[in-house]
Fold:
Amino acid sequence: MSELSQIPDFSKLRVAVVGDLVADHYLYARPQRLSREAPVMVLSHEREKVGAGGAANVACNLSSLGAQVRIFGAAGDDAHGCELTRLLDANGIDTAGLDLLSGWTTPTKTRVLAAEPRRSLQQVLRIDREPKAPPDDLVRRRVAERVRGLAAEVDAVLVADYEYGMVCEEVAAAVRKLAACGVVVLVDPRDLIDSFRGVTAFSPNVTELARFSNEAPEDLDEPERLHGVAARFLERTRARLLLVTLGNRGMALYGEGLGPAGVSVPASGTGEVTDVCGAGDTAAAVFALALAMDLDPILGMVLANAASGVVCLEHGAAMCSPAQLRAALPAAPLPRLPVKASAS
Structure:
C-alpha cells in the first residue's frame, strides 16, 4: 500500500465531538516504606496533573492531527471541569458548545502512579469521582439542538459515550439526522446502539461488542464467532462499517464490500505497551477522519491502528501527532485480507 508512506492532510476537515467529558487526574509518587498503621505502602507525593479523557480526549486527538474541532457536552464548574475547559482551549478546540454546570461533578478518574527512581511507573490505585445523576434533561436537549444544526458546518461527528448520561435519545436523534444529510457519523458506543441505527460506523472494543450481542468476550477470540457477531451487529444497526478494537490482537473491520470475514490487522507498535488508556479514543478519532476524507476504510483502519500503537507507549490518555503517526507508518502491520478461493 503506497499510501502508507505519507499521512493525509486533515487540516480542512471540520469535526464535532459530542459525549461525556472525563478528567484524567494523575498523582505521581515515590514509594517510601510500609505504613505502621496498616499493611499498605506509604508514598511520597511528587506531582500531579489533569489530562483530557473521554470525549475530551477524542477532541484533543482530532485537533492534534490537524482537524478543526468543536466539542459539545457538559462538565461541572468544579476545579477539574474548569481545567478540562482550559486544556481544550489550549488545544485549539472550540468549546462554545460546552456547558459548565453548577453543582454537577465532573467525571474524574484519579490514577496513582508510583515507582522507584529509574523504574517504570506502575498504577497502584484508581479512584473514580462520578456525578450522582446525568445532566438534567434541559441541558441534554440544549446540546442535542446545537448538534442538530451542524449539517452544513461539519464533515464528521464523533459520538463518545462513557455512560455519564450526555449520550441520550435526543442526541442520537440529532446525529441520525446529520447522517441522513450525508455527514459522516461515527459512534464509539456503550449503550443505545439501536438508537443510532443508520449511522456511518461504530467503533466498539471487543468486550462492548460481546455485551451488545449477549456473548462472552472470550468466545469472540474465535474468528468465526467474531465474524458472525459482527454480521448480526451490522444488520441490527444498519451501519456501513464496524471497526472492532481487539486489544493486543489488533483490529477487525466489517461492512460494505469487505465480505463476511471482514479484514483484520495485527496490533501496531514497536515497544512494550505502557498504558492502553485512551487507545480506543485515538482509534475512533483517526478512523472518523479517514472516513470524512473518503479514504478506503481499510486504509483508515491501518492509520487508526498505527496511531493507537503510538499512544499505548505513553502513560494515560495521550494524543498522536502527525509526526508520530508518520514515523509509525513504515512499521505498521498490513491488513490480513480474506483468502479467496482460486478458480478451477
Observations:
- The two ends are 29 Å apart (CA to CA).
- Residues 54-105+134-331 form a domain with the UDP-N-acetylmuramoyl-L-alanine:D-glutamate ligase fold (CATH 3.40.1190.20).
